[in-house]
Amino acid sequence: MWGKIGGAGLGFAIGGPLGALLGAVAGHFVIDSPSGLFGNDKEAVFTAGLIALSAKMAKADGVVTRDETLAFRDIVKVPDSELPRVERLFDLAKQTTDGYEAYASQIAELFREDRALLEDVLDGLFHIAKADGAVHEAERHYLASVATLFGFTEEEFGRIEARHVRVADDPWLVLGADRTWDNDRLKRHWRTLVAQAHPDRQLALGLPAEAVEIATRRLAAINAAWDRVAAERGIR
User: Fold this and answer.
1) Phi, psi (deg, nearest 5) at residue 182
2) By residue range, what is the domain housing residue 6?
3) Which site in 7, 86, 131, 221 is 20 to 30 Å from 92, CA atoms measured?
């Protein structure tokens, strides 16, 4: 995986703003194509995209705390030998003239058929943002904007946010479920969420450990919310 991040030809294979970023890390330059076409190396794009969007979020917030750095390392498992390369990728993403919109749009295009992976990226960003004990207003605005670029509605963003921030301690919001639904519909909905979030799915897609870690956390939040809803409804 980390060999790909610095691979001399990967930027050309992916193209777009992420390809240009990876190319700069590898020491070459990539001319972005107005067509927006790029390759489909999901493993590299997922990790590079998460790093790039994390860097842009840090810039939006104005400061990178030690807690946020540790949270980033918790999500992105970086071998010690690759730390200088990842730090360079982070710094370049923070400084580049490409806005976060360019990176978010490219990720959205690649993962447009798999919205669960887009949720994984948002979950990873939330995990980093809340590491210092709060999601600050600038960070929330940034995350909401990224979610919009990913194609999520305000309601869907609220459901994702509820897994991380106690805006309203509401398990129904975490599940994106309606209290008017009967028990059978609730169970079907919960099982669908579990199937979408299960880490085995990320493994089957060949995604990196970062995606599996994020999916594991998301599944735990979904099941915790379900336990509360099931208890409220008396569902066994």
Assistant:
1) -80, 170
2) 2-168
3) 131
CA 194 to CA 183: how far, in whole Å?
16
- What is d(CA 4, CA 9) in angstroms, rounded to the nearest whole number? 9
Task: Report yes or no: 107 and 82 within 8 Å, Cβ to Cβ.
Answer: no
> Residue 213: inside a domain, yes or no?
no
Query: Quick check: is 138 in a domain?
Result: yes
* pTM more than 0.70: no
Dist. CA 5–CA 3, nearest whole Å:
6
Q: Residues near 165 by Cβ (< 8 Å), separated by ≥ 6? A: 126, 130, 135
Tokens of 188: 């079907």
Q: Which of 186, 169, 196, 166 is nearest to 229 (CA)?
A: 186
CA nearest to 1, candidates 42, 39, 43: 43
Question: Per-residue pLDDT averaged across 204-221, rounded?
Answer: 78
DSSP one-letter string for 131-162: GGSS--HHHHHHHHHHHHHTT--HHHHHHHHH
Checking if the pLDDT of 6 tops 50, the result is no
How many other CB atoms sit within 10 Å of the CB of residue 109? 12
Cα separation, 36 vs 33, whole angstroms: 6
